[in-house]
Amino acid sequence: MEKIALEAARLLFAEGGAGWVVAVLLGLACLHLHRQNLRAVETRISETGATATALERASQSGAAVAAALESRTRVLEDLARLSAEIARSIDRSDERARERFDEVLRLVADLRRQALPDPDRKDTR
């Protein structure tokens, strides 16, 4: 770039006036390069904006997923607690049922002892 600028400056002051043509062409080339650079920067800025928007949407969806997972975790904890309570109540009910069944068996045994001797039984007297 420096060589082009030095050559343009030398031709600008050279005899025959060709330097002015080179200076104008060099100025137009610099203007064109400046505009291209501005377009590239604008494109990068718009791409950065699009990336930022996409990241924001991803962040929002990630937050929504996290909230949904937290809600489901709470529901699962509630279900686990409820199932534990149900299991405890079933165990208590089984104990009560076993106690009642044992009581019924005792009563039946007492009734058998009090009843008349069974004809199928062999009397040992």
Describe this protein's structure.
- With 125 residues, the protein is an all-alpha fold.
- The protein has a domain at 2-83.
- The protein is built from two helices and no strands.
- α1 packs antiparallel against α2.
- The relative contact order is 0.03.
- Keywords: Membrane, Transmembrane, Transmembrane helix.
List keywords for this structure.
mainly alpha; 0% strand; 125 residues; 2 helices; single chain; rod-shaped
Shape: rod-shaped
Query: How many whole angstroms does the radius of gyration measure?
Result: 49 Å
C-alpha termini separation: 134 Å
By DSSP, the count of extended strands is 0
% residues in beta strands: under 5%
Largest sheet: none
- Pairing-aware structural class of the strands and helices? mainly alpha
Helix content: over 70%
Mean pLDDT: 78
Unreliable parts: none
Ordered list of secondary-structure elements with their pairings:
Elements: H1 2-12, H2 18-114
In a few lines, what is going on in this structure?
It contains two helices and no strands. With 125 residues, the chain is mainly α.
